[in-house]
Amino acid sequence: MSATIDPTAQVSPTASLGRDVSLGAYAIIGDNVTVGDGSVIKHHAILECNTRIGRECVIFPFASIGTDPQDVTFKGEETWVEIGDRNTIREFATINRGTAKGGGTTRLGDDNYLMAYSHVGHDCRIGNKTVIINGATLAGHVEVDDHVVISAHSSVHQFVHIGRNAYIGGYTIVLQDVLPFAKISQVRENYFLYGPNSIGMMRNGISREFINTIKDIFRIIFRSDLNTSQALDRLNQTYPDSEETRIIGEFMQRTRRGILKNFVHK
């Protein structure tokens, strides 16, 4: 079946629409936009330019995707947004294109849910099955791994990396990298670590044994007097060749902004 296009929608002649695509009233599909099969672009949504939308995505009213990066050094270079399959992007969410200096592309994987008024800045890399809740904002170059939840009105500093299965509580300002599986929040000037994101991990099929090992690893990293390299050595001694140590160790070794560790423990 061909695309269903409301007569008030505007579609660039250089855009490409897949099978069974639906465009609502006053939707705008700009230059070099591709919309995959079965995707729904609701009324007043904007896909400005150089945007690739995968299959079976739903873009809600007044969402804005593919607009220029909010970077004062941007000079109109050709950059892109690439969005995978089965993503839901709610009202007034914004996703900016990449910058030449950041690789040129902002990317989202599959099965993500971006709630109303959330923002994804230029050159971000978002994995699969993440949830970015109302009003949460990601600055440029942020990396978010699979199964992460970022709660309402939280802000993530540029170049921060949030590891897989992490949970960020509402109104948290994230200034450094967050370890995989961690559950954190901020109250005024204090950060709180609640241990592993156990409920989220179990919902994603992670075993109780794995979760308990992560708890022990967090004790070594966050509740000892060891620095990062010493903590990694202790992990390799305590849990040699384990999947848990490999995931945490690789994440810690590639950090650019340092690991968020300034916690008041609960």
Folded structure, characterized:
With 266 residues, the protein is α/β, with parallel strands linked by helices. It has 2 domains: 4-141, 3 Solenoid (UDP N-Acetylglucosamine Acyltransferase, domain 1), CATH 2.160.10; 200-265, Udp N-acetylglucosamine O-acyltransferase, C-terminal domain (Udp N-acetylglucosamine O-acyltransferase, Domain 2), CATH 1.20.1180. It has 4 helices and 29 strands. The chain has helices spanning 198-203, 208-222, 228-238, 243-253, and strands at residues 4-5, 10-11, 16-17, 22-23, 28-31, 34-35, 40-41, 46-49, 51-53, 58-59, 64-67, 80-83, 88-89, 94-96, 105-108, 113-114, 119-120, 125-126, 131-132, 137-138, 143-144, 149-150, 155-156, 161-162, 167-168, 173-174, 182-187, 190-196, 263-265.
